[in-house]
Backbone:
């Protein structure tokens, strides 16, 4: 067993705000979400473990299977209940079938566990367009703006959650294993973002989007705006 010296790209922390902070009571889920980009020489049975500081690790390891090999990134979670308030360096380790290990670069994050969270502002979400792909997929375009000033929320990292309304609508990373359909996770200069949805025409869902200090909600029906 050996450990490679070359570091892989750092993990992505979509719940972290622009100041590097996660206010635990503000996020949508009960888990800390870590995204790992697809790395070179990925193989079936590779195992990924995320490390939060010195003593907190994801368990069980994320094991790459045949369906994962071509994914653009992998989502790993750790319960917030396992993490105390404080600042941590987060990185991951990949172990291949031969037992060789490679570490990633680290990224810093601060967890704040308090009911007195940072200020939250309401965003207006407006569906401004959609593109149907076959009978089961849609690329939805949403525009975000401040609900009071109407200022566009431009060039801002965002995170979204989909809740089906008596349907099976879901958010997916890419459509038909086509990497060209992977959407940016930052709003553009027009305050717009794109979401890949899987569902049938007429299916509905509630979309909640968070972008730094802004949170907005919109109801959407597949095939309409």
Residues:
């Amino acid at each position: 067993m050996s450990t490679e010296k070359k570091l892989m790209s750092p993990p992505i922390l979509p719940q972290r705000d622009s100041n590097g902070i996660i206010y635990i009571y503000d996020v949508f889920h009960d888990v800390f979400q870590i995204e790992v980009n697809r790395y070179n020489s990925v193989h079936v049975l590779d195992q990924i473990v995320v490390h939060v500081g010195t003593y907190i690790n994801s368990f069980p390891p994320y094991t790459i299977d045949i369906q994962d090999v071509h994914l653009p990134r992998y989502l790993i979670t750790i319960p917030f209940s396992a993490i105390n308030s404080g600042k941590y360096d987060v990185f991951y380790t990949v172990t291949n079938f031969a037992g060789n290990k490679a570490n990633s670069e680290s990224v810093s994050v601060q967890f704040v566990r308090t009911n007195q969270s940072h200020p939250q502002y309401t965003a207006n979400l407006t569906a401004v367009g959609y593109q149907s792909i076959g009978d089961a997929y849609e690329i939805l375009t949403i525009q975000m703006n401040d609900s009071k000033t109407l200022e566009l929320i431009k060039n801002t990292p965002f995170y979204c959650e989909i809740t089906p309304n008596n349907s099976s609508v879901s958010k997916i990373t890419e459509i038909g294993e086509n990497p060209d359909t992977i959407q940016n996770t930052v709003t553009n200069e027009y305050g717009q973002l794109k979401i890949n949805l899987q569902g049938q025409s007429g299916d509905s869902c509630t979309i909640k989007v968070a972008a730094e200090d802004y949170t907005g909600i919109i109801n959407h029906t597949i095939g309409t705006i």
Summary: The radius of gyration is 19 Å. The chain has a mean pLDDT of 89. The chain is about 0% helix and 50% strand. The first strand starts at residue 3 and ends at 8.
